[in-house]
Design goal:
Two copies of one chain form a homodimer. With 169 residues, the first copy, chain A, is an alpha+beta fold. The first copy, chain A, contains five helices and nine strands. Helices cover 31% and strands 27% of the residues of chain A. In chain A, strand 7 (144-146) and strand 8 (149-151) form a beta hairpin.
Amino acid sequence: MIGEGLRLRHPRPEDQLRVLAVLDEWWGGLGGEAGSQQRALLLPRLYFQHFTTTSWLVEDADDRLVGFLIGFLSQTDTDAAYIHFVGVDPGLRRSGLARSLYQCFFDLAREHGRKRVHCITSPSNTTSLAFHTALGFLVEQGEKVVDGVWVQPDYDGPGLDRISFVRTL
Amino acid sequence: MIGEGLRLRHPRPEDQLRVLAVLDEWWGGLGGEAGSQQRALLLPRLYFQHFTTTSWLVEDADDRLVGFLIGFLSQTDTDAAYIHFVGVDPGLRRSGLARSLYQCFFDLAREHGRKRVHCITSPSNTTSLAFHTALGFLVEQGEKVVDGVWVQPDYDGPGLDRISFVRTL
């Protein structure tokens, strides 16, 4: 399912710094230094220690990191799985790699008996909105509508609005 | 085990904003605005949605939030549990509340067959270091020693050094 010359594996703790290192580049510096710090704080090492079996890393033939997906199984709702953070090398966008990573996660979540996958994105990230919608995610109703899309104000804290997605497995 | 007049319960999604609201006050504004944002980003709503069964909130007789513990069971290492974030109202420090919250988590982790609890703290937080040591946590060996304590440089990302603890259950 993953493209030719690419290898898929579960992450290890020491991969965290590699992932952080490519994030600024891949995100095109979105949000400046504050955005960079936000992304680092959203990916503490604990994800690379304790949620590795439901997370994926993709490397190319030169061992370069070209994609990753960090996800977990909900411990509260045994029907739910959650995708926390996904990144793909801009050179491989539109290659189907992100879609493949999501499909790998969907398969794994199904194997664990999960019936739904949740994830969120920033309202400013229109590429992400289009991607998730194309993959079959629905936008959950929020408290306000911005540019025709339901948004959850202060979802992750004051000023941290989010679009909330859910997809049936 | 929790003090008189206090109620212990598992958190709900809507508790996240309440927790964030008290954090700056309880932490005494440590780290200024950047510190405030760091704390908020370390507690995204997902913890209040998907890891509630291993997390705790404490309220007093007036429904005021006076303490919380956010923890989870490792999905990678089925012997391990992890305490992610703990806070106690400064007016209740030295009351044994933090210790009780940890004991509640230890009991729960044991019930789930876990044999070890992990957590981390910032090297500058000497109160936290003393607290964890008194509770039986050991400092894991790092790559450098700062003020006589092993520190893991760049543990959570560039410039985010941490002390790493482990305690046998």
